[in-house]
Write a structure and sequence with these properties.
It is a single chain. By secondary structure, this protein is an alpha/beta fold. It has two domains: 39-218 and 396-413, Rossmann fold; 232-393, Glycogen Phosphorylase B (Rossmann fold), CATH 3.40.50. The protein is 45% helix and 14% strand. The chain contains 18 helices and 13 strands. It starts with a helix and ends in an 11-residue tail after the last helix.
Length: 424
């Protein structure tokens, strides 16, 4: 009976939070649109970027679309080196190909463009960031405006990071700030296409009732599976962590403290985190002077170095409070490294992950001890299943297929006719 009462209490508390979040969101919509535009234009990210026409005119009049993402793939020669820098450099051309296939001519601009065109100039707008928000906020035209949510809703991200920073201040007395902008895009969107899991979707549902569709984040071309050459007996005690920024967001503080106190386990840190100077300086001893913690810096996931590390590591530990199928975890899974993640990391792992129920020292220590106690044969089997799952789920074909399906459904809801017969 007591358990039932506790479960009921938790359900009521969750329902109350969702209702209050929904009310706050829609009350907030009463604020001046001009205030939103001004705030977006004042963003530190914003500067002037070009608007690139990416396909030639059709022989007859046709619909127009604007994509707010990245422009480099349409200004530089296509190559693996560019697309390996970030998956957006591949996703942007994939989205454009989809739009062109349905009879749109397409303009592309950067998600940070301070002078993005108004959505009123187009029949469809897709994108993210302050440029998408400003473009849609000053629009009165009733057209599909599709927000690309590559991860958690920004407000949830900011909230989760603040909780982590408060815990660090209480535990170590260190006052850090790590930025997390709240993207107002969903306020002005008609639909959302997101990358992530159910946790990700619920972050948007807490503030919006827009139709939503999930697409998977594709792995980087050229990442190698390394399960065949792995010593699983030793790999049980070796862990990888990899991120380009956001040390607190991805729980590196807790990992450093836990691994420094438990030298029988090894941690490799990949990604250049030296630019987070306050964090790096505070944890310099753990990062650079602790024998079982290895700071590698930025690593190309298609390189021999990444292959060497994944062939020696059994687990990819990533206690993130906000992500959406992050490429680092996806690429490690392709290599056959077992993910150790909380649901807030936004991963879909086919039930093969080691779950992190809470990001605290005792929980993390218990998890790495459980990982270290696995039989080599068990880890080998799980590693192969992880690699097989990732090779099916996190593909470019899967992204294109799901995005195409989502777009068709969105356009149908808004009564936009598709035309695949145009001559390019």
């Amino acid at each position: 009976m007591k358990d039932k009462i506790l479960r009921l209490g938790r359900k009521l508390a969750n329902a109350t939070r969702r209702v209050s979040g929904f009310i706050r969101w829609h009350c907030y919509q009463k604020y001046s649109v001009q205030q939103v535009i001004l705030r977006e234009r004042q963003s530190l990210y914003l500067k002037e970027y070009p608007v690139v026409r990416v396909n030639a005119a059709f022989s007859k009049p046709f619909a127009s679309a604007l994509l707010h993402l990245v422009t480099e793939p349409f200004q530089e020669p296509q190559c693996d080196e560019l697309s390996n820098r970030h998956s957006n450099y591949w996703k942007a051309p994939a989205i454009v190909d989809c739009l062109v296939g349905y009879g749109f001519w397409v303009d592309v601009t950067d998600w940070r463009n301070a002078n993005s065109p108004s959505a009123d100039d187009y029949d469809l707008v897709i994108g993210q960031g302050p440029a998408f928000t400003a473009s849609c906020a000053r629009s009165t035209k009733k057209i599909p405006k599709v927000f690309l949510g590559w991860g958690l809703y920004g407000g949830a991200t900011r909230h989760n990071i603040e909780l982590r920073l408060k815990k660090l201040r209480k535990r170590r007395g260190l006052r850090l700030t790590q930025a997390a902008d709240v993207d107002d895009g969903p306020r002005f969107a008609t639909d959302i296409i997101y990358i992530g899991n159910d946790y990700t979707r619920k972050s948007y549902e807490s503030i919006s009732k827009l139709p939503m569709a999930m697409v998977p984040n594709p792995a980087t071309n050229g990442v190698s599976r390394t399960t065949e050459s792995k010593d699983f007996g030793n790999a049980r005690r070796r862990f990888l962590w990899m991120a380009a920024y956001g040390t607190m967001r991805r729980g590196l503080d807790v990992l450093l403290e836990v691994f420094a106190a438990n030298p029988e386990f090894e941690l490799w840190i990949c990604g250049d985190i030296s630019h987070e100077k306050d964090f790096f300086g505070f944890y310099k001893r753990e990062i650079l002077e602790t024998a079982n913690i290895h700071y590698v810096g930025w690593v190309d996931v298609t390189s021999d170095l990444f292959r060497e590390m994944t062939s020696q590591s059994g687990f990819f530990i990533y206690p993130s409070v906000s992500d959406g199928m992050p490429g680092s975890v996806v690429n490690a899974m392709i290599a056959g490294v077992v993910p150790v993640v909380p649901e807030s990391a936004g991963m879909e792992c086919g039930g093969l992950e080691v779950n992190i129920p809470s990001i605290d020292h005792s929980t993390i220590l218990e998890i790495i001890k459980q990982c270290g106690a696995m039989h080599a044969e068990e880890l080998q089997e799980q590693s192969n299943l992880v690699a097989d799952f990732a090779a099916r789920f996190y593909t470019r074909e899967a992204f294109q297929s799901r995005f195409n399906k989502a777009l068709v459904e969105i356009l149908a809801r808004h009564g936009v006719e598709l035309n695949t017969q145009r001559d390019v």
